[in-house]
Amino acid sequence: MNKPIIIGNWKLNGSKYSIQTFVRNFFKELSNFKKCNIIIAPPNIYLDFFKNILFNKNLISLCAQDVDFNNYGSFTGETSPLMLKDIGVKYVIIGHSERRFYHKEDDQVITKKFSSLKKIGLIPIICIGETKTEKLQDKTIDVICYKQLNSIIEKMGVESLNDSIIAYEPIWAIGTGKAANPNEVQIIHESIRQFIFKKNSQTAKKVKILYGGSINEKNAIKFFEKQDVDGLLVGNAALETKIFSRIINEISYYNKNNN
Ligand code: PGA
């Protein structure tokens, strides 16, 4: 298996001071972090600052929390894929449920963002997930595969997922402290992989599928130990240096192949 992927999404939090403190303490706490692919998404305005104070730029990859699909033009307030690339960003989260909900972004818009990122070689992290109601109605796979993922696959082809990351984040688990059940997550991740497998077996093997939603230092390994969980997308717990580094340390020492 490739390196586990651990993403920290800071959302709308942080300041120059807190970022400096984070970087200083983070590396002290980490023991075996080279075994993980650590990706951090600060607010866009701090991306460049964050990059510049990272002690060793190769240890953490820069990620943006969102992006516009236009590269330039009269789109006040937006940040473009080209601009992100220009300052050294490698990954971009798209389709986060907070963007879908508060900014009314639909699958069409998210597909356009995906397309713009792929065109210039940035790696999309596509968030998919169902609401509590959809889960109760047994519609999870319909929503995340046949609707959300399919929107991208139909427009861009399934192979476009080869070097992309999918983050399964049930909406009801995000920021609630109520993470999903790891066994259920495994079943859902397996279904996502099978859905892709039917279209292209190689892509199904290559695509990385992460879980996100109320991950903390106690439950992280319970998700990561599942066969089809290639990593984690961490929100609130990524703001606290000690907790985030503990999650990374645990996952670094866990050898999936031997367990
Ligand atoms: P959470 O957020 O870990 O705070 O639930 C996850 C996310 O929004 O990606």
TrEMBL record:
Pathway: Carbohydrate metabolism; erythritol degradation; Carbohydrate biosynthesis; gluconeogenesis; Carbohydrate degradation; glycolysis; D-glyceraldehyde 3-phosphate from glycerone phosphate: step 1/1. Substrate binds at residues 9-11, 175, 214. Its EC number is 5.3.1.1. GO terms for molecular function: triose-phosphate isomerase activity. The active site is at 96 (electrophile), 169 (proton acceptor). This is Triosephosphate isomerase. Keywords: Cytoplasm, Gluconeogenesis, Glycolysis, Isomerase. The keyword Cytoplasm applies. It is found in: Cytoplasm. It catalyses: D-glyceraldehyde 3-phosphate = dihydroxyacetone phosphate. Pfam families: TIM. One of its GO terms (cellular component) is cytosol. InterPro entries: Aldolase_TIM, TIM_sf, TrioseP_Isoase_bac/euk, Triosephosphate_isomerase, Triosephosphate_isomerase_AS. Homodimer. Belongs to the triosephosphate isomerase family. GO terms for biological process: gluconeogenesis; glyceraldehyde-3-phosphate biosynthetic process; glycerol catabolic process; glycolytic process. Involved in the gluconeogenesis. Catalyzes stereospecifically the conversion of dihydroxyacetone phosphate (DHAP) to D-glyceraldehyde-3-phosphate (G3P). HAMAP family: TIM_B. NCBIfam families: tim (TIGR00419).
